[in-house]
């Protein structure tokens, strides 16, 4: 009877080992399947992204992009020139012309009025008080 119980015990231990191995294999398979599903989603995402890029490439050519960039640079340069004009910045030619005009003015003999030779009066005459005018009210334009 003891021998039969030992055989039964041994058989159940082997059965338990086989079952644990099968469970391990099943767990590995489930993990592999989950990983494969994630890989499939990534591949589908890449496929959709690639299709979108191809559609965008069909719509926009390199020449079109270069043209847009060139137009943008031209517009920026034009705006910079407008800003300089509005800010009153002068070019070197403008500055040279201004300096020449200043030199011409300073070279001319200007007739200044004669300074009076009489001494100034010591007593300052009283000045009548200045009347303050009311400030006009600002009205909003309509």
UniProtKB/TrEMBL annotation:
InterPro entries: Snf7_fam. GO terms for biological process: late endosome to vacuole transport via multivesicular body sorting pathway; protein transport; vesicle budding from membrane. Residues 9-36 form a coiled coil. Residues 109-142 are annotated as: Disordered. Keywords: Coiled coil, Endosome, Membrane, Protein transport, Transport. It is found in: Endosome membrane. Pfam families: Snf7. Its main location: membrane. Belongs to the SNF7 family. This is Charged multivesicular body protein 6.
């Amino acid at each position: 009877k003891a021998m039969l119980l030992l055989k039964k015990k041994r058989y159940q231990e082997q059965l338990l080992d086989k079952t644990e191995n099968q469970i391990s294999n099943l767990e590995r398979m489930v993990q592999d399947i989950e990983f494969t599903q994630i890989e499939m989603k990534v591949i589908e995402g890449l496929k959709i992204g690639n299709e979108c890029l191809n559609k965008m490439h069909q719509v926009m050519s390199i020449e079109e992009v270069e043209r847009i960039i060139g137009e943008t640079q031209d517009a920026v340069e034009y705006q910079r020139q407008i800003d300089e004009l509005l800010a009153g910045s002068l070019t070197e030619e403008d500055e040279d012309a201004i300096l020449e005009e200043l030199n011409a003015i300073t070279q001319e003999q200007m007739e200044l009025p004669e300074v009076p030779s009489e001494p100034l009066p010591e007593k300052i005459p009283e000045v009548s008080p200045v009347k303050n005018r009311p400030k006009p009210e600002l009205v909003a334009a309509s």
